[in-house]
Every structure is written in structure tokens, then in C-alpha cells.
Amino acid sequence: MKNAAIELNNVSRKFVSPQGKVTLALRDFSLTVNEGDFCAIVGPTGCGKSTTLGMITGLNPPSSGSVKVFGKPVTGIDPNIGFVFQADAVFPWKSVLDNVAMGPVFRGKDLKLAREMAAEWVRRVGLAGFEHHYPHQLSGGMRKRVALAQTFINEPKILLMDEPFSALDVQTRALMQEELLGLWSEKKASVVFVTHDIDEAIALADRVIVLSKGPGSVKSSHEIPLARPRHVSEARYSDEFVHLSKKIWTDLKDEVQI
Ligand SMILES: Nc1ncnc2c1ncn2[C@@H]1O[C@H](COP(=O)(O)OP(=O)(O)OP(=O)(O)O)[C@@H](O)[C@H]1O
């Protein structure tokens, strides 16, 4: 049996604004993600998806309940955790190579070795030849590739992704999903992937969690038995995929209707 990588037990998270307005973002929220599992979260806007990721990182502690990573309570930022967000986290004044080398440099590697490692990752994400370009010289999809290289170079054991591909056009998005699965399959980090797109969730994940409208809690959990390695662009036309998509939408639509 696999060990738990992430455990949230009966977590609630309350925010109080400077004016004293209280928002309950999550209520009695429990979720376990096992080592090497790819878990996607879908839910209506404002149901607490980003708040959940923030609690796993340690940046946003729960108001009650417990959050554990590899069996230990989360007390601060853990170097085993990597993130990819919707916005690009690239330094505009650094080249592609140096952007990718930043992680190893921050972790104490000397610049020469960090650049060698970065060159290998730049190649792996399909950006060979663009090492000395700057972010403004790249397309949105290429910047996302830089973001993946920046994250995977640190070999995170846990990967948190908050709508990472939502700003991309449909074709680039499908390519990036394929790229992500290829990179993930090599080391099998435990992934929590937040998205508004049910088909993206099914294409990528082993399990899709549907959250109820805010204050969010787990409404349902769906195992995704599609075979791996998975080819995203082909998998989505199978009967099984369409069936899963309808089933999850049936659950989600009650939560998104106003
Ligand atoms: N720092 C904060 N201060 C006050 N309220 C907050 C704060 N962060 C989040 N919230 C509130 O908590 C609730 C959940 O927010 P969160 O960003 O986690 O939702 P989400 O599901 O990620 O939304 P979306 O799908 O729109 O990105 C919302 O009502 C939001 O307004």
C-alpha cells in the first residue's frame, strides 16, 4: 500500500478582512494524496481551491484541523514542494538558461553546475536553441515550458499546480498537458492540480475531486481508470472519457449554478 504524501484532516480556513468581515473559505475539508498520485481538484469559483494549495505549502495555515506532508505537520515552506501557477514566475531580466538555473543556485549549487543542469532541462522541455533568449522573446507556451523546467529541475516530491495552463490557447494547452505527463511519469511526484476544466482534470489525473461551493468541502471523488502512459489528445475521444466527463459535470453543475 502507498504512503500518504499529503493529508488534510477536517481542515477549516477562515479569513478576516481589516474591516472585520469574516469569510469561511473551507469547512471540514479532508483529502489524502498518496505518494506518486496525480490528484486534480475542480470546483466553482471561490470554493477554496487556491486556499487548499496555500495550506499544503505552509504559507496559509488552517484555522482548525491538521495538514501533514509525508506524515509531518506542515510548519513552514518545504523544499520538497514545487509550484506552477497561472502567472509566469520568470525573471524578465534573466535568460531562459539562467531562469532555469535559479532553483539549483538558491539550493547551493555553484553557477557552472547549475547552468549545466539547466541546459539539460531546457533541452528536455523542447527549448534547445532558446537558452539565451529572454522571456519577452518567447511565446506563452514557451514561457510555460520554462516554468516546467524551473520546477522539475528541483525534483520536487510534491507538485502543486494552480490552473497552470489556463492562459494558453487550446492547442498549446494540449501540448503542455502531454509534456507535463511525460515529465511527471519519470519521477512520479505527488501532484495536486487545480483546474476549472473537467476534461483537463480527467486527461491528467488518477483521481478527480469535486469541491462544493464555498465554504468548500469535498463533494465527491472520482477514480480515473484511463490507462497510462496516456496520450491526452487521443484519450479524450474514448467512450470512457466522455462517460467520466458527464458524471463529473453532473456533480459539478449543481455547485456552479447561481
Ligand atoms: N487573503 C484572503 N483574505 C480574505 N479572503 C480571502 C483571502 N484569500 C481567499 N479569500 C476568500 O476565500 C474564498 C476562497 O478563495 P480561493 O482563492 O481559495 O478560491 P478558488 O476556489 O481558488 O477560486 P477561483 O476558482 O476563482 O480561483 C473566497 O471567498 C476568497 O474571497
From TrEMBL:
One of its GO terms (molecular function) is ATP hydrolysis activity. Residues 6-238 form the ABC transporter domain. It comes from the Bacteria. Coiled coil: none annotated. PROSITE patterns: ABC_TRANSPORTER_1, ABC_TRANSPORTER_2. InterPro entries: AAA+_ATPase, ABC_transporter-like_ATP-bd, ABC_transporter-like_CS, ABC_transporter_ATP-bind, P-loop_NTPase. Keywords: ATP-binding, Cell membrane, Membrane, Nucleotide-binding, Transport. Pfam families: ABC_tran (PF00005). Belongs to the ABC transporter superfamily. This is ABC transporter ATP-binding protein.
